[in-house]
Amino acid sequence: MAPDWAEAWNRRAGLRSQLGDEVGALTDLSRALSLEPRHFDALATQGQILKHQDKKMDALKAFLVALQLCPNWPELETQVKALKREVEGQDI
C-alpha cells in the first residue's frame, strides 16, 4: 500500500529473516536502503544476516555505517569490535 515507505520494507525483511528467508530479507533491506540510505536499523539487520552467511567483511561494513549513524548503540559497537578482530586479526 505504501511502496515508497522504507520502514515497511525493513519490517518485512525482519519477518522474512525470522522465517529463515535470508535472500528475501536482504532483497527487502536493499529496497529499504535505496529509499532511505540512513536507515540504521536496516543496516544493522543487513549486517546480522551477512554475518550469519559468513560474509564478515560485508557485515562489518554495514555495521560500521549503522554505528556511524547511531553511535550510542552499545550492542552494535560490540558487534563491530568482535567482527574487526575476526576480519582484521588481532595484534600480538
Describe the structure.
- The chain has 92 residues and is mainly α.
- The protein has a single domain, classed as Tetratricopeptide repeat domain (Serine Threonine Protein Phosphatase 5, Tetratricopeptide repeat, Alpha Horseshoe), CATH 1.25.40.10.
- The chain has helices at 6-18, 22-35, 40-52, 56-69, 74-88.
- Helix 1 runs parallel beside helix 3 (40-52) and helix 4 (56-69) packs antiparallel against helix 5.
- It is globular.
- The mean pLDDT is 93.
* Average pLDDT: 93
- Whole-number tally of structural domains: 1
Strand residue content = under 5%
**Low-confidence region ranges:** none
- Amino-to-carboxy terminus distance: 55 Å
According to CATH, what is the topology? Serine Threonine Protein Phosphatase 5, Tetratricopeptide repeat
* CATH architectural category: Alpha Horseshoe
Biggest sheet statistics: none
Number of strands: 0
CATH homologous superfamily classification: Tetratricopeptide repeat domain
Provide the helix percentage: over 70%
Q: Give the count of helical stretches.
A: 5
CATH class: Mainly Alpha
Radius of gyration: 13 Å
Strand-pairing-aware structural class: mainly alpha
Assembly classification: single chain
Shape type: globular
> Which series of helices and strands comes N to C?
HHHHH
